[in-house]
Specification:
The protein has about 500 residues and is of the alpha/beta class. It is built from 15 helices and ten strands. The protein has one domain: Glycosidases (TIM Barrel), CATH 3.20.20.80. Helix 11 links the parallel strand 8 and strand 9. One of its GO terms (molecular function) is beta-amylase activity.
């Protein structure tokens, strides 16, 4: 069997492994857990490196010491490391067990200028992440949001050079929105959103409002405003004039807005990834960006929940391929969620299509010749979920004589917990790791299965948004087998 069939497995560490007070709290317990993972042939772990912890004392006052201790322990246990530049708040999303706000000096700016946060039509502010409207405005003691993110990543590189040089850190996932995902905070539980609500557009802060007005005026429509007919968080599409059958989203005005809203997200990600590329230039790491698996209302004509999140994806318009094209410019991995979900597990009233969504997004990445990786959206310990992940990792199975036709770069499992390590759950998980590895056993050197690890090169030239939008023409996803040829033992 060719080693090219091997797909690595990482496990996300607990959200509060470094506390909000910047203390690596319980290294003894974690060491025991990491050794169990290593004995199970797990390849590595993923950790959030929280902006709200590291730069909490004041602008450019970084303290990396707790994370250095954590990284040393991961290295000692023989695991690799995926690092997330977490520029968002922890708390307020599904599965958030701890609260880590943005740095207090940033929140202090928000006291006098609440428009630095994403805002819905009712003027509710979402304090999870700064609005892209302030990306290039020097509102933070003379720095723009993008400069803050850039300085943070450069400081990380300076302080973690030894780990980068040692090959401990394989991927750097760059936070681009709430939950670290490249999206708008369109479905915040903290504001009362409940699945499967369509969510709300988040562009009513004064900065994005002004940008939209400017764009509409340039397009010859100074009378156009942001939508006022798109409903509320927990509506269904047909309860709104915007998303209903033959609704506003299909009009010239609706299309103009949706193009502007989704383009803002792509430009935001593109700019920050360019800064990440500069910060880590020459390091033997891969950059990555996480795209959210907004699978509810996917089979509705309106794709309402995707649209409010910033993914302008419809039956006749591919909202994900332009993102893949943009990621290719930075040699970045597209990381996608909800790999474990099956349509049959979803309630019919959500018009959910996780299987088709996964196929569409992964196919878009493969068509743009970029690496695609992924994770499960909800904690699952059953063979059904693992087999679905395995099917998505190698949609056409293994190839005994060479690389498989299609293969994901790897999977990060959510998440390390006492539940995962209980006897029954861990037995199935170990079988999952073995099947991810295509029954080849543990391979320490990533170049043997994912190709040579080369120093990060300069981002390619900027792609005009008009060129990116040519990639919205829909294409059929690649064919998937009905089930995986590497099933875990039930």
């Amino acid at each position: 069997m060719s080693e090219k069939n091997y797909a690595p497995v990482y496990v996300m560490l607990q959200l509060g492994v470094v506390t909000v007070d910047n203390v690596f709290q319980d290294p003894e317990s974690l060491e025991k857990q990491l050794k169990e993972l290593r004995a199970a042939s797990v390849d590595g772990v993923m950790v959030d490196v929280w902006w709200g912890i590291i730069e909490s004392k004041g602008p450019k006052q970084y303290n990396w010491s707790a994370y250095r201790s954590l990284f040393q322990l991961v290295q000692k246990c023989g695991l690799k490391l995926q690092v997330v530049m977490s520029f968002h708040q922890c708390g307020g999303n599904v599965g958030d067990a701890v609260t880590i706000p943005l740095p207090h000096w940033v929140l202090a700016v928000g006291e006098s200028d609440p428009d630095i946060f994403y805002t819905n039509r009712s003027c509710n502010r979402d304090k999870e992440y700064l609005t892209s409207g302030v990306d290039n405005l020097p509102l933070f003691q003379g720095r723009t949001a993008v400069q803050i993110y850039s300085d943070y990543m450069k400081s990380f590189r300076e302080n973690m050079t030894d780990f980068l040089n040692a090959g401990l850190i394989t991927d750097i996932e760059v936070g681009l929105g709430p939950a670290g995902e490249m999206r708008y905070p369109s479905y915040p539980e903290s504001q009362g959103w409940v699945f499967p609500g369509i969510g709300e557009f988040q562009c009513y802060d004064k900065y994005l409002k002004a940008e939209f007005k400017e764009a509409a005026t340039r397009a010859g429509h100074p009378d156009w405003d942001l939508p006022n007919d798109a409903g509320e968080y927990n509506n269904t599409p047909d309860q709104t004039d915007f998303f209903k059958s033959k609704g506003t989203y299909l009009t010239q005005k609706g299309k103009f807005f949706l193009t502007w809203y989704s383009n803002k997200l792509i430009i935001h990600a593109d700019q920050i990834l360019e800064e990440a590329n500069r910060a880590f230039l020459g390091c033997k790491v891969k950059l990555a960006a996480k795209i959210s698996g907004v699978h509810w209302w996917y089979t509705d004509d309106s794709h309402a929940a995707e649209l409010t999140a910033g993914y302008y994806n419809l039956g006749d318009r591919d909202g994900y391929r332009p993102i893949a094209k943009m990621l290719d410019r930075h040699y970045a991995i597209l990381c996608f969620t909800c790999l474990e979900m099956r349509n049959s597990e979803q309630s019919s009233d959500a018009k959910s299509g996780p299987e088709e969504l996964v196929k569409q997004v992964l196919s878009d990445g493969w068509r743009e010749k970029i690496e695609v990786a992924g994770e499960n959206a909800l904690a699952r310990y059953d063979s059904t979920a693992y087999n679905q992940i395995l099917l998505n990792v190698r949609p056409n199975g293994v190839n005994k004589n060479g690389p498989p036709k299609l293969k994901m770069y790897g999977v990060t499992y959510l998440r390390l917990s006492d539940d995962l390590l209980t006897d029954d759950n861990f037995t199935i998980f170990k079988s999952f790791v073995k099947k991810m590895h295509a029954d080849l056993g543990y391979i320490a050197d990533p170049s043997k299965y994912n190709g040579p690890v080369i120093p990060l090169k300069h981002s390619k030239p900027k792609i005009p948004i008009e060129v990116l939008l040519k990639a919205t023409a829909p294409t059929e996803p690649f064919p998937w087998d009905k089930e995986t040829d590497k099933k875990v033992d039930a």
